Amino acid sequence: MKADISRKILGCLILAGAITIAATSPFFLSRLAEIIFKDLKYKLKNNQRFNNAFYYLKKKGLIVVEKDQHDIVIIPTEKGIKIMKRYQVLDLKIERPKKWDGKIRIVAFDIPNAQRTKRNAFRRKLKELGFYSSQKSVWLHPFECKNEIKILQDFFGLNNKQIHFFTAEKIEDKFLFEKITAVYKI
Known about the structure:
Helix content: 40-55%
Low-confidence stretches: none
Strand order of the largest sheet: 5-6-4-7
Mean pLDDT: 83
Number of strands: 7
Oligomer: single chain
Shape: elongated
Strand content: 15-25%
Largest sheet: 4 strands, antiparallel
């Protein structure tokens, strides 16, 4: 549970860039919990869980708490941003739409041998996400996944010359098309 709350705190801080709270409030952590969880139907049964998660992030150097005149500013650190990106990649999923649009998404990559570890990890993640391998460096998926590929590209530190994303309206190779539609039960 603490890990889920920690992820939520860190994720909100990264999206916001920083959160500022009036330092005069004796309940600033309760106020922070309200800000972070306001959009959810999430009730903290015990504020101590939130407090523990907050102090854990601070102790691990994932967030910095600074006083700015009459306010307290909470900022994610580089280390915190890096860890949050890792969580984001671990939780990555491609949503299956109710109705398929008939298009195939293609990811082609050319990651040099000097970056073999990144290349293999990128390939494993594509497989984990349900991509179909047409060739070692050409992978296909029937559902929209451009954002997920961008997240992977950023996480692995790959540039636009190394990763290419295409959307195909039609695949001429009937065998390949049948294979894809069978794999995804479309």
